[in-house]
Amino acid sequence: MGRVFRDLTDDDRELLSLVAWERLDHGQIARMLGVSRNAVRIRLYRARKRFARGLARAGIDHPRAIALEGSSL
Question: Is 47 exposed, middle or buried (0-12, 13-18, 19+ CB in 10 A)?
Fold first, then answer.
């Protein structure tokens, strides 16, 4: 799973980390990145999809809602 995460773009890793480990909400992330909440929502959706595809390619089973160490992404 770590390899799949490291293979993501810097932007995808940053977004997923801010949600999963820093537990920031969309508004907080939007302010940090200087974008709208809607842009965060869309970027996060796409990052999650790319991560899920990477997990599938690596043969890692994952639930419909991906979670890392108890943190929903």
Answer: buried
pLDDT at 32 over 90: yes
Query: Which domain does 10 fall in, by range?
Result: 2-72
Tell me the pTM: 0.80
The residue written with tokens 């980390």 in the block is: 17
What's the mean pLDDT in 25-38? 96
Task: Find the angle CA(45)-CA(16)-CA(68) to the nearest 5 degrees.
Answer: 105
> How far apart, in whole angstroms, are the C-alpha atoms of residue 28 and residue 19?
10
Looking at the structure of the chain, the number of domains it has is: 1
